[in-house]
Amino acid sequence: MSLPLTSEITDQSTEPSGMSVLFLGKELFFSNQTLRSVQSEFGVEAQRHETLEQAMNSFDGAVPDLQMLVVDQLLQDDLLSRPEQYLEAAGSGCIAFAYRKEDAARSLFMHWDRKRHGDIGYLPMNVAPDVWRSILRLLLHDELFLPTIFVDSLESANGDGVASPARKNGISVAGPGDGNKKLYEQLTRREKQVLRLVSHGESNKIIASKLGITEHTVKLHMHNVVGKIGVSNRTAAAHFYHEVAPRDSRQGSVE
């Protein structure tokens, strides 16, 4: 199954910036059309190889500077068995795990040693094209995307480093009875900014303009926010914000 991007290529074609996105997996899952769409949408060079070995051989053992290394779920066992090689290939870029089944993502999340190897991103492949592009955009800007399917795994973490809470971007997890302030603290800086503007009654278009992001990204942030704080709509999220946010945050700028 390839990503459903049939008619979703942006009208504004952009020249590649020289930074690369390398997809590891079969053409069935990362089609040529998907690669062209990524190049057109984000202005990066996108390539695909089925395995890490094929990529290394293609680049004569030296993978060029990557912005992101996307690893298909079929390579999960290989990724877990030799994470150092994948990290070396990614270089200064991030690793993103592309999954079609939530069980595969949960399994990697529980077994990936974040204390030793750092955090990785998660890229769901069975979502709407605009959502997929928004998630990819977050990952390309080094914003950790943590699907809500991991909430139970985070709350049951035993602190041994294998299932410890993600620390990047200030994410933490509220324990039982910790209350709404703990839920608020688990939001990323950007999610708090979006939530603050939502609490002021701003539209997605205005929020996107003020924060310099797209409306799709605003929607994605709000999707994450409502999932993390356990509310069902923007109104409830706004009430939540006014109850728990520090007073200076309510009146501060978006900077």
Spans of at least 5 consecutive residues with low confidence: 1-17, 157-178
SSE order, as H and E? EHEHEHHEHHEHHHHHHHH
**CATH level-1 class of the largest domain:** Alpha Beta
Please, what is the oligomeric state?
single chain
* CATH homologous superfamily identity of the largest domain: Response regulator
Total number of domains: 2
Distance between the termini: 41 Å
The CATH topology of the largest domain is given as Rossmann fold
Indicate the CATH architecture of the largest domain. Answer: 3-Layer(aba) Sandwich
Largest sheet: 5 strands, parallel
Strand order of the largest sheet: 2-1-3-4-5
Question: What shape does the CA trace take?
Answer: globular
Walk me through this protein's architecture.
This is Response regulator transcription factor. InterPro entries: Sig_transdc_resp-reg_C-effctor, Tscrpt_reg_LuxR_C, WH-like_DNA-bd_sf. With 255 residues, the protein is of the alpha/beta class. The chain folds into two domains: 20-153, Response regulator (Rossmann fold, 3-Layer(aba) Sandwich); 175-251, Winged helix-like DNA-binding domain superfamily/Winged helix DNA-binding domain (Arc Repressor Mutant, subunit A). 47% of the residues lie in helices and 11% in strands. The chain has 14 helices and five strands. It has helices spanning 32-42, 52-58, 76-81, 83-90, 102-111, 114-117, 129-140, 151-155, 180-185, 189-199, 204-211, 215-229, 234-244, 247-251, and strands at residues 20-24, 45-49, 66-72, 94-99, 121-124. Strands 2-1-3-4-5 form a five-stranded parallel sheet, sandwiched between helices. Strand 1 (20-24), helix 1 (32-42) and strand 2 form a beta-alpha-beta unit. Helix 10 packs across helix 13 (234-244) and helix 11 packs across helix 12. The protein is globular, with a radius of gyration of 19 Å. The termini are far apart. Mean pLDDT is 78; it is low at 1-17 and 157-178.
